[in-house]
């Protein structure tokens, strides 16, 4: 487990993917499991710490969507916005864990209500920015015109099942 960096408001892990599928609702007696999925793009696992506010969201989204971590068709590194690619955002409270003896503690994580609000704002801002970038790329033949770009998200505060085909692996840890 890594300790929260002094003054950090959030932690994110990014993974480039070829395909990702997340179970957002388990099966029950009346219905089958519900899934969200993306094709080529990026999976972002996100955790907010105590003291985080909405002020951090624009910086986080701009940084995460514009980092050149994805391979284009020609092999050069581009951002998920430039690819264009899709995004799967997964709430991941365990990123805030801290080992204490043989147990893991999460005392530095934000409360559930505030975390849900920040997570929803983060997903909405990602969607706005990524779809705007895809619309701007529509005239660019190399970018593929932004066809099929989507933003999907997991459910905050619930256990979920993730199936992921990575391209790399390219996994990056970011602190904000």
Structure characterization notes:
The chain is an alpha+beta fold. The protein is 20% helix and 36% strand. It is built from 2 helices and 10 strands; from the N terminus they run βββαβββββαββ. It has helices at 57-66, 112-137; strands spanning 10-25, 34-38, 41-48, 70-71, 77-78, 86-91, 98-100, 103-105, 151-153, 161-175. The strands form 3 sheets. Strands 1, 2, 3, 6, 9 and 10 form a 6-stranded mixed beta sheet that branches. Strand 7 and strand 8 (103-105) form a beta hairpin. The protein is globular. The two termini are 17 Å apart. The relative contact order is 0.28. The model is unreliable at 141-145 (pLDDT under 50).
Largest pleated sheet: 6 strands, mixed
Percentage of residues in strands: 35-45%
Distance between the termini: 17 Å
Q: Count the DSSP helices.
A: 2
Query: Secondary-structure element sequence?
Result: EEEHEEEEEHEE
Low-pLDDT stretches = 141-145
Fraction of residues in helix: 10-25%
Count of DSSP strands: 10
- The rough form would be described as globular
Report mean pLDDT, rounded to a whole number. Answer: 89
Supply Rg: 17 Å
Structural class: alpha+beta
